[in-house]
């Protein structure tokens, strides 16, 4: 077993859970034993493209879901500047742009970046989020929709999101709900480097200065359950 240190709580107490996933004894986070290098991951995913890009009606369905997500954000803030972390082919960005947002985003699939440019004229950063030099205190919303579980270091990702958010800005995270060993085994995915229990992420966001606004449990589904976390960056 490789030495693992939990990025959220700092614990080195780990117990094997399933396949190559271990569970942190400090906070309960499920953590992949070894992560691919960023260059290897970028190479492996360079041609990845959402099925919605090729299915009839796929982009429209994705845009509709994005509108639902944005309506939740707009309950708390008016359209301003939005950054989509792991933007894929830009559906959230395009939907937000249509609603009056100024949008930016990143992805590590060159195919997705090109698709977004060709179909929506969006310029998506072909870089990892944490490696982009973004201006501090400059965004009103940061979206991580089915992204945080793929990151190399969720704590670093959240810290970067916090840095670029303005006071009162919204962070909206959706993650698959795999808080139990049974769920982890049933829905194991090789490219998920972390799996969260709901209370873990809630406590961590609170510790970083975010205030809970709403949590949406999308658990009544035949597929993988998911949870949406809508948090606001409070004043220092």
Number of strands: 10
Tally the structural domains: 1
Q: Assign the CATH class.
A: Alpha Beta
Task: Classify the secondary structure makeup into a structural class.
Answer: alpha/beta
Number of helices: 7
Q: Tell me the helix content.
A: 25-40%
Report low-confidence residues grouped into runs of 5 or more.
none
Largest beta sheet: what is the strand line-up?
A: 5-4-6-7-10-9
Shape, principal axes of CA atoms: globular
CATH architecture: 3-Layer(aba) Sandwich
CATH homologous group name: Vaccinia Virus protein VP39
Task: Provide an overview of this structure.
The chain has one domain (14-233): Vaccinia Virus protein VP39 (Rossmann fold), CATH 3.40.50.150. A hairpin with a 7-residue loop joins β9 (210-218) and β10 (226-233). The strands form 2 sheets. It has a 6-stranded mixed beta sheet with strand order 5-4-6-7-10-9, with helices on both faces. It has helices spanning 38-44, 58-73, 91-98, 110-120, 154-164, 181-186, 198-207; strands spanning 14-18, 21-24, 30-32, 81-85, 102-106, 139-145, 165-176, 194-195, 210-218, 226-233. The mean pLDDT is 95. The longest helix has 16 residues, at 58-73. By secondary structure, the protein is an alpha/beta fold.
């Amino acid at each position: 077993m490789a030495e693992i240190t939990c990025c959220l709580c700092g614990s080195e107490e780990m117990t094997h859970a399933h396949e190559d996933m271990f569970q942190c004894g400090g906070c309960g986070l499920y953590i992949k034993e070894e992560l691919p290098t960023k260059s290897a991951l970028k190479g492996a995913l360079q041609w990845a493209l959402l099925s919605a890009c090729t299915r009839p009606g796929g982009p429209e369905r994705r845009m509709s879901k994005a509108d639902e997500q944005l309506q939740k954000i707009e309950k708390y803030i008016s359209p301003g500047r939005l950054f989509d972390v792991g933007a894929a082919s830009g559906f959230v960005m395009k939907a937000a742009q249509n609603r009056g947002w100024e949008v930016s985003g990143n992805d590590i699939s060159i195919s997705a970046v090109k698709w977004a440019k060709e179909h929506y004229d969006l310029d998506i950063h072909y870089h990892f989020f944490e490696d982009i030099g973004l201006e501090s205190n400059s965004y009103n919303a940061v979206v991580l929709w089915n992204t945080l579980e793929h990151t190399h270091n969720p704590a670093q990702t959240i810290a970067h999101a916090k840095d670029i958010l303005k006071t009162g800005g919204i962070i909206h995270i959706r993650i698959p709900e795999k808080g139990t060993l049974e769920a982890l085994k049933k829905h194991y995915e090789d490219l998920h480097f972390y799996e969260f229990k709901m209370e873990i992420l809630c406590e961590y966001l609170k510790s970083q200065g975010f205030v809970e606004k709403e949590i949406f449990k999308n658990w009544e589904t035949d597929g993988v359950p998911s949870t949406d976390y809508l948090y606001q960056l409070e004043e220092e």
